[in-house]
């Protein structure tokens, strides 16, 4: 709830409009979509009635691949998470539907970023001299800092400043 507080303060500071060019809602969401993350949406209901929204991520074949439902009280704010797994292809959109009217009220193109890992490389000391033994470990995480499952076996390689491979490990554990 504390995450919604800044949004609510800004909204109240500007005043709650009676009608926003016919719209009775406001949506706050990222335009970036990443695999294996939670996609956050904040929906504000500016109408005097309780509203239910269906928020969906649509793939390139106009088929909903991930979705969630959200009910927002009159003049209230609601937050929903859409759990995104693997993403294939391009051309994803965020569609928001008014469940009561069964009508599409908003559609936005999403930028899909395929990079799905955060790689941390740790060495045993900050600098080495020629002939020193280099000890290191690599930790592979998802972008939300959850460790990658044990079944994932990355290829690791070390290059010199000229980008020549000095050492490599395939299917490292």
UniProtKB/TrEMBL annotation:
It comes from the Eukaryota. Keywords: Signal, Thioester bond. The keyword Signal applies. Residues 1-22 form the signal peptide. This is Uncharacterized protein. It comes from Anopheles maculatus.
